[in-house]
Amino acid sequence: MAKKAAKKKLRVTLVKSPIGYSKRQKATVRALGLRRMNHTVEHVDNPAVRGMLFKVSHLVKVEE
Questions:
Q1: 36-45 pLDDT, tens per residue?
Q2: 58-62: which pairs have CB atoms within 8 A and are 24 or more residues apart?
Q3: What is the pTM (predicted TM-score) of this model?
Q4: Is the pLDDT of residue 54 over 60?
Q5: Does residue 1 lie within any of the structural domains?
Q6: Number of folded domains that form the chain
């Protein structure tokens, strides 16, 4: 059996409040699992997550 390659992870931290931004951007932040300032979550690196991060890049910090 071949071993599965380890999926690349992204560490996402909310560094700026979504208050004052559009409902869509607030919803994207929530969909990423970010609840409060300086909250960090890990996601598997895939195009869907990358697209969400691109839309709220001014609110989050991303580490690979």
A1: 999 999 999 9
A2: 58/16, 59/14, 59/15, 59/16, 59/17, 59/18, 59/21, 59/25, 59/29, 60/12, 60/13, 60/14, 60/15, 60/16, 60/29, 60/32, 60/34, 61/12, 61/13, 61/15, 62/10, 62/11, 62/12, 62/13
A3: 0.87
A4: yes
A5: no
A6: 1
